[in-house]
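Annex B. Sample input.
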Amino acid sequence: MAKDDYFVIMYMLLKRLYDYLKQGKTITNQELDEIGSQYNQQYWAYILLNMSDQGYITGIIPIKALGGTSIKYDNVQITPTGIEYLFSNSMMERVKRTLKDIKGIIPGM
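Annex B, continued. Sample output.
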């Protein structure tokens, strides 16, 4: 799987949000912007909007304009549904195994 694969991005974000939740922290808008800057902005918005629509995260506000839909962040957090998806979905498990294999092959990842 490529690092810009939909499910890889989804896994990485859900995992970070869950880790932050357990630490009593929230992800900042700046962190989200930094993550999103690695991808095409329409693709990033698509992923976040769908994660929000599916109930995996909260705090994504769509902003519709003539040029399309952009997003605004407002205290983005993982939901209990997102936590369950992270740990029980077979695709998320496959991504997790793939990322672990890559870390084992490439030092420093």
